[in-house]
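User: Let's play a game. I give you a shape written as tokens, and you guess the letters that built it. Ready? Here's round one.
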């Protein structure tokens, strides 16, 4: 209360007079305390009775000029301590945090509109927390909250986690939370729990999916006449195969699939690894010599990826094989990679949005995911499929990204068959 002593004394006097009048009305005649102020009120009462144009004086309606009502309980504040905020007055116990409901006793507090908060409660409500370390995201040198946010998953995290060796899922790209352990693959990659649910780990597991995607091509009158071998491999084996491949354009920073046209000996995964804690161990591999019987020697795919991502890679690489078997020669990377990405995107659409383009679905293919074995997909798997489609659509590379966007526009306008025919004749997409 920052008023002067004189103001406070005047307010106390006014309130005392009002209380005295109220008490006097309750006393029998002859027992009232008299004062000069009482005389004034008596004359006022007599005048009101003689002149009916004025209502009788009612002391219960008299309030001092400084009368205050608590904004919390709506009661008279009286003569104790009180707080003033935004033109409203409160009993100290009635000035409470809008979030936790406890009284605010600190000298500093936060306001949001007209709602008061403890500073700690307001920070809890408004200051973002890192989804990796679960601490408040720190401010930068300018005093501003700076964080990173994944464009699809909206995962917010401290910028420092991009450089402090925090594990990132090799499939969905999400960073590992400190209270959730990712699985470590033997080639150094990490896999989150959601991607692990439908991960395909060896060549035998992948065969049903591979044949289902070949059937998908046949359903679009794009049958592959040759039986192209398909192998699941580790990262090192895939990188070694890329070095031995003379032709082709490879996606950076990491290639996940390869359509071989040269004869090579490739180490494939014969038996899936077993789970040991948060590591996958005990994987068996075998070297396999690939001989060239046609324009395509084999298709290699990185192991340990979820079913939908593995299928998208297979659809992409099978399109490379189809183009070579059908005599599409010397295409520039934007055209070849762009149309291969379109087939990968279309297959994902058929899985995630089966009615979108009225294309055949391969959901009946056997996988390691129980939901897919029943012909349906969990919400987790659908969300992963949407993410893989988002990756293709927003790829920043000239060949895979811009090539896809031009190819997809052509297919949407002219159809797949006419677009392929135009590529065969001109080497470019129709405008």
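Assistant: Ready! My guess for every position:
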């Amino acid at each position: 209360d920052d008023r002067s002593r004189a103001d406070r004394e005047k307010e106390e006097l006014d309130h005392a007079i009002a209380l005295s009048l109220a008490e006097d009305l309750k006393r029998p005649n002859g027992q009232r305390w008299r004062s000069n102020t009482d005389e004034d009120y008596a004359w006022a009462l007599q005048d009101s009775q003689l002149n009916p144009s004025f209502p009788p004086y009612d002391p219960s309606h008299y309030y001092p000029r400084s009368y205050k009502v608590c904004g919390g309980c709506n009661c008279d504040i009286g003569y104790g301590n009180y707080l003033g905020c935004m033109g409203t007055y409160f009993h100290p116990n009635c000035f409470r945090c809008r979030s936790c409901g406890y009284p605010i006793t600190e000298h500093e507090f936060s306001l949001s509109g007209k709602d008061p908060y403890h500073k700690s409660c307001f920070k809890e409500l408004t200051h973002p927390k890192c989804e990796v370390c679960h601490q408040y995201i720190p401010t930068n040198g300018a005093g501003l909250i700076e964080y990173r946010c994944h464009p699809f998953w909206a995962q917010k995290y401290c910028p420092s986690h991009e450089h402090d060796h925090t594990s990132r899922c090799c499939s969905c790209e999400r960073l590992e939370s400190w209270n959730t352990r990712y699985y470590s693959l033997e080639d150094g990659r990490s896999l989150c729990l959601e991607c692990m649910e439908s991960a395909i780990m060896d060549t035998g597991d992948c065969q049903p999916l591979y044949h289902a995607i070949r059937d998908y091509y046949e359903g679009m009158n794009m049958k592959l006449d040759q039986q192209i071998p398909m192998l699941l491999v580790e990262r090192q084996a895939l990188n070694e195969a890329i070095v031995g491949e003379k032709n082709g354009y490879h996606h950076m920073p990491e290639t996940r699939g390869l359509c071989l046209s040269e004869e090579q000996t490739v180490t494939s995964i014969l038996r899936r690894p077993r789970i040991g804690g948060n590591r996958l161990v005990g994987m068996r591999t075998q070297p396999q010599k690939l001989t060239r019987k046609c324009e395509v020697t084999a298709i290699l795919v990185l192991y340990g990826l979820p079913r939908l991502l593995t299928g998208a890679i297979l659809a992409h690489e099978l399109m490379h094989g189809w183009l070579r078997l059908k005599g599409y020669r010397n295409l520039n990377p934007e055209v070849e990679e762009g149309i291969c990405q379109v087939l990968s995107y279309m297959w994902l659409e058929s899985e995630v949005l089966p009615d979108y383009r009225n294309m055949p679905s391969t959901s009946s293919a056997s996988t390691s995911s129980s939901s897919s074995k029943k012909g349906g997909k969990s919400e987790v798997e659908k969300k992963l499929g949407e993410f893989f489609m988002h990756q293709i659509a927003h790829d920043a590379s000239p060949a895979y990204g811009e090539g896809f966007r031009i190819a997809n526009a052509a297919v949407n306008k002219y159809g797949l068959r006419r677009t392929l025919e135009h590529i065969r004749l001109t080497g470019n997409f129709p405008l």
